[in-house]
Known about the structure:
Blueprint: E1 2-8, H1 24-27, H2 31-38, E2 41-45, H3 56-63, H4 68-71, H5 76-83, E3 91-101, E4 112-114, H6 122-136, E5 141-147, E6 150-156, E7 162-163, E8 181-182, H7 185-200, H8 203-210, E9 218-225, H9 233-237, E10 241-244, H10 248-256, E11 260-262, H11 275-287, E12 292-297, H12 299-305, H13 309-333, E13 338-343, E14 360-366, H14 379-384, E15 388-389, H15 394-399
Parallel strand pairs: 1-12, 1-13, 2-15, 10-11, 10-12
Antiparallel strand pairs: 2-14, 3-4, 3-6, 3-9, 5-6, 7-8, 13-14
Helix pairs in contact: 5-10, 6-7, 11-13, 12-13
Amino acid sequence: MKYIVVLGDGMADYAIDEFGGKTVLDVAKKPNMDYMSRNGELGLVRTVLDGMKPGSDVANLSVMGYDTRKCYTGRSPLEAASIGVKLREDDVTFRTNLVTLSDEENYEDKTMLDYSAGEITTAEAEQLIQAVEDELHTDMIHYYSGVSYRHLLVWQGGSTSVELTPPHDISDRKIAAYLPKGDNAQKLLEMMKKSEKILREHPVNKKRVAEGKNPATSIWIWGEGRKPVLENFEEKTGKKGSVISAVDLIKGIAVCAGMNNIEVPGATGTYESNFPGKAKAALDALLNGSDFVYIHMEAPDECGHQGDAAHKKYAVELIDEQVIGYLRKELYRRGIDYRMLIMPDHPTPIKLKTHVSDPVPYIIYDSDEQCGSGLDYNEENAKKTGIYEPVGHELMNRFLQK
Length: 402
């Protein structure tokens, strides 16, 4: 038996007028998800436990079967693991986004125009983060480049007693109420302000402006944490696991859990990602020693943050056709028995442009068992089944039949 998780980040949503009072999952053409829902277990699961913020870090750890009350130490340390930054016990890490702020002279008066700086390329971002490192590093503070707009700050001897806000939570809002608070708040704000002076005149940004793209006008610091410790996934479950993702956060979880990270050329966090490449890489892993593959796709979440309903629907349809449909056909052709878990990590509602901690709909489909809910895959039908798992990390045990 092979085990496959298809994780459509932020795929769940609320009903919106644009879709006639329906959700993305209601209106998307997704024959493979619907077939598996009708012939499998459909239910709701709470991936974000009470008292925890509904981030992709907490939610994906929960989906993978980890109790976040015991293992969670912050988002950015997981990204550090993916980048390859070795952390000391007294290091504190911070996610460092490249963002586009409005151009008011006073920093506090600015608005968050774009949390991803126009989904800046990794090659461009690397130059910008290096410029920030060159100007702002100290013996205790260093910056490291990651993927696209997502980067890392490591502060030896720093503090996690801070209040910091994810930039994707404040799209189109004035930033004044969301600037750093707590330990070292003034120092963190000073770095953000100084970065603006470095970045605005950088050749990379001048070129982006000339091309009609959003420039990366500032760093935005958030997602504090300390060195993580996760139980080895294979020792925990008895399954040799592989992970496929374009996002450092998910890759970092894989590193910390001792799972194999599979790189797919052209894989991004957008709806233009190489979905067929991810599906083929998953099949190859299953045919070559992996018992378990976790396929993470960021696109629905990114579209949710941008309030882009049409492309969120399109992303769900691509996942259904190019990933689930491909694997379903190829595994059947080869006579391979499998179980597939299909779900989001959390909802990212179009109307809110940020994450919420509501329970999410999931499907567990077993190729050996052709019976199930009889219902298509969406949020309302998942409620109708009455199946509810209130402790998210317990779902993995049921999926793996433990």
